[in-house]
């Protein structure tokens, strides 16, 4: 009894430190634009050739998803790109697309879902277990398109995958939003040489994805905002 009491205070102390650290880490935004040392922003301005290739890749994926009748829309920084400059943000390393995880997608196996992308010669990085997402790229292109499945949980769209459990607070803070924002019919915006769906309500969705700076485009450190 005496022994347990003696260790109670240090244990409580360690617990509080770990809990604080967990909450602190969860409240960080780990998006690419935040320019973390383990994934620094490589360039403030992708070349026109790179952006063209990225847009072609995105259009290819958009066409495949449409042919599979999987509802999808631009997500995260790509919404800013479409709204502000009708193309991807110049420093972005990818185009983000959200899609409905229920219905058609839920009824097919992952390999059946991958098949048309593979048939088109695209490279697939399966991050399904980790973060309920799929990264698609082209051989020779460092930029990619990230697909994120979203599921309607009683009116809130949520992601899946281990990360969404381990970093539950982070996912709550940066990766969920009200379902009405992506209910049909979605508005379309020009994105490079094609049109693609975006969430409803203008920049309303940004309040949920970037709660601490949703009203502005935040360039990575050292980069200028696009005009
Ligand atoms: C995109 O939408 C605009 C406005 O609705 C339309 O004028 C234009 O033709 C569309 N472009 C393409 C490539 O479908």
UniProtKB/TrEMBL annotation:
GO terms for biological process: glycoprotein metabolic process. Pfam families: LicD. The chain crosses the membrane at residues 12-33. It comes from the Eukaryota. Keywords: Membrane, Transferase, Transmembrane, Transmembrane helix. Residues 68-98 form the LicD/FKTN/FKRP nucleotidyltransferase domain. One of its GO terms (molecular function) is transferase activity. The keyword Transmembrane helix applies. The keyword Cell cycle does not apply. PANTHER family: AGAP006029-PA, FUKUTIN RELATED PROTEIN. This is Ribitol 5-phosphate transferase FKRP. It comes from Acropora cervicornis (Staghorn coral).
């Amino acid at each position: 009894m005496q022994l347990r009491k003696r260790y109670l205070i240090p244990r409580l102390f360690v617990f509080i430190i770990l809990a604080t650290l967990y909450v602190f880490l969860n409240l960080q935004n780990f998006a690419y634009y935040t320019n973390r040392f383990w994934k620094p922003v490589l360039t403030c301005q992708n070349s026109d050739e790179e952006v063209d290739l990225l847009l072609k890749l995105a259009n290819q994926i958009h066409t495949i998803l449409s042919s599979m009748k999987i509802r999808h829309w631009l997500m995260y920084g790509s919404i800013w790109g479409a709204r502000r400059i009708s193309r991807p943000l110049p420093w972005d390393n990818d185009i983000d697309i959200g899609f409905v995880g229920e219905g058609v997608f839920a009824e097919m196996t992952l390999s059946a879902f991958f098949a048309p992308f593979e048939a088109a010669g695209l490279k697939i990085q399966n991050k399904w277990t980790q973060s309920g997402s799929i990264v698609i790229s082209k051989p020779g292109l460092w930029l990619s398109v990230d697909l994120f499945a979203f599921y309607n949980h009683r009116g809130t769209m949520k992601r899946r995958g281990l990360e969404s459990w381990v970093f539950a607070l982070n996912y709550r803070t940066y990766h969920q939003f009200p379902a009405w924002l992506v209910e049909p019919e979605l508005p379309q915006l020009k994105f490079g040489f094609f049109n693609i769906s975006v969430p409803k309500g203008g920049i309303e969705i940004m309040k949920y994805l970037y709660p601490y700076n949703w009203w502005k485009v935040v360039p990575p450190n050292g980069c200028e905002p696009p005009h």
